[in-house]
Write a structure and sequence with these properties.
Blueprint: H1 51-76, H2 80-84, H3 90-145, H4 151-169, H5 171-192, E1 214-221, E2 231-238, E3 243-248, H6 254-259, E4 269-274, E5 277-278, H7 284-290, E6 291-294, H8 305-309, H9 319-328, H10 332-336, H11 355-369, E7 373-377, H12 385-399, E8 403-407, H13 411-414, E9 419-424, E10 427-432, H14 434-437, H15 444-466
């Protein structure tokens, strides 16, 4: 027998397609589309939906709403002081408060509905299944009394019902838990399936530390998700122990350039040489052991000060070494001022310490690591003048005999550099020392120098007038 198959016929995903879907499927004669039942078309019209998949979207929406509420809370709560200090934006504050309350109420209602379904499922299922069992037992007993079945068959039936009906009852709970598990599994696998960064892919492995000679030869760089060049044909050379300063406006490519050194990103054009060997020949793990980074916003873990200083060193460190590094970073006396000294817990993101203290703890960590190449990413921009002076002294100690890259916006921070690169839109538009760049009156470096000098002079005059 053959069958005509319409677009409603499907091949079910959850059971073997052993017969044609009955919807609009009928036998017909010649000149009609005919097909064997095994070849039913997968059109999805009458496809039975897996019960776990059916409730998975609702579960995912509930988790998304929970994440949204927590995201808003985490964003707004730390800035509550800023909100209170801006009475002029009261309407905006009320709008944000109303949005949060709306999102929170939606999450509450979804959670309440889920709990209501859970609370109703068990008593209702107990009642329904109990009535079914009672009806089945009475009916089977009547059949046994009338001689239609034996007593043994009746006992077998009762045992079978008891063994089957309660596991079936638990399917509701299993389906809910399975849907939640599938959503969590899907999100977890999005992270697990990300391509891992190869740390030991280099072909050149020196036995000791690098010297620190670095050469950029026509280096260009484009982010993988971008179209425009972040760096264009950048070329310069640095000798071991020299300091290179990068100056330029926001988005000019300063951070992108230094991020190429530890191979956080791969340059897309030209080449970078480290001690005469192309950077890609070194493994990432080796490079990152040779490079120390002091960032603009230092990050400390919610552990003791000692553990934060020794983090990432990769070897056993004595207390004497820790204290020597802390003294060089001008933070030893501050640490001793705490009741627990080096065992003081700094709290989440280092809330126990001030901005300057956190920065100096980071410098002590870098000193202990003893890298041959140092990257200072605008590390004094967010502190006061007195703290900046203390940090600068610690940085001078750190920079000694190390190839250093300094990212800064203040002329005072780059004047000591052996080479200053002025960047604009990914290109080096000026290069030289402070003494060579200042006389170039049409250059960006001179314009920045004049502006900052005028601001400093006006500030000094204002302070003198007040005093």
């Amino acid at each position: 027998m053959t069958y005509v198959v319409t677009e409603a016929c499907i091949k079910c995903k959850y059971m073997d397609c052993v017969e044609v879907c009955p919807v609009d499927c009928f036998y017909e004669g010649e000149n009609m589309l005919v097909i064997h039942p095994d070849e039913c078309i997968d059109c999805g019209v009458c496809e039975p939906e897996c019960p776990v998949e059916a409730i998975k979207p609702d579960t995912e929406k509930g988790i998304d709403k929970w994440l949204e509420v927590n995201r808003v809370y985490a964003e707004k709560w730390p800035n509550i002081t800023a909100k209170k200090e801006a009475p002029a934006d009261a309407d905006k504050y009320r709008d944000e408060k109303g949005k949060f309350e709306k999102d929170n109420w939606t999450k509450y209602m979804k959670g309440k509905f889920l709990l209501l379904m859970h609370s109703l499922f068990w008593p209702l299922s107990d009642i329904v299944l109990g009535l079914q069992m009672l009806f089945g037992f009475v009916y089977a007993a009547t059949m046994a009394i009338n001689g239609e079945i034996t007593v043994g068959m009746y006992i077998a039936y009762v045992g079978l019902v008891v063994w089957l009906i309660w596991p079936i009852r638990n399917l509701g709970r299993i389906i809910v838990n399975a849907s939640s598990g599938m959503v969590s599994y899907g999100r977890l696998m999005e992270i697990v399936k990300q391509a891992r960064e190869p740390l030991f892919d280099g072909t050149y492995q020196p036995e000791g530390p690098v010297k620190g000679e670095i050469a950029f030869e026509n280096v260009s760089f484009i982010y993988s998700d971008g179209k425009d060049h972040v760096l264009k044909d950048v070329s310069f050379r640095v000798q071991p122990g020299q300091a290179v300063a990068l100056l330029g406006s926001t988005g000019s490519g300063k951070s992108s350039m230094v991020n190429l050194l530890p191979r956080f990103h791969e340059y897309t054009g030209g080449r970078i040489l480290l001690d005469g060997v192309e950077l890609k020949e070194y493994s990432r793990a080796y490079l990152r052991r040779q490079i120390g980074i002091v960032e603009q916003e230092p990050f400390l873990f919610s552990r003791s000060i000692r553990e934060n200083i020794t983090y990432g060193v990769g070897r056993d460190v004595s207390q004497e070494e820790v204290e020597r590094a802390a003294k060089a970073a001008a933070v030893h006396d501050v640490i001793l001022g705490f009741p627990d000294g080096y065992n003081t817990l700094v709290g989440e993101k280092g809330v126990t310490l001030s901005g300057g203290q956190k920065q100096r703890v980071t410098i002590a960590r870098t000193l202990l690591k003893n890298p041959r190449i140092l990257i200072l990413d605008d590390s004094t921009s967010s502190v006061d003048t007195e703290t900046e002076a203390a940090i600068r002294d610690a940085l001078n100690e750190l920079m000694e005999n190390r190839t250093t890259f300094i990212i800064a916006h203040r002329i005072q921070s780059v004047m000591i550099a052996d080479l200053i690169l002025v960047l604009d839109k990914g290109e080096v538009i000026q290069m030289g020392t402070h003494e060579e760049l200042v006389p170039q009156r049409d250059g960006m470096y001179r314009r920045i120098y004049d502006i900052q000098t005028r601001i400093d002079e006006e500030l000094e005059m204002e302070i003198s007038r007040v005093n």
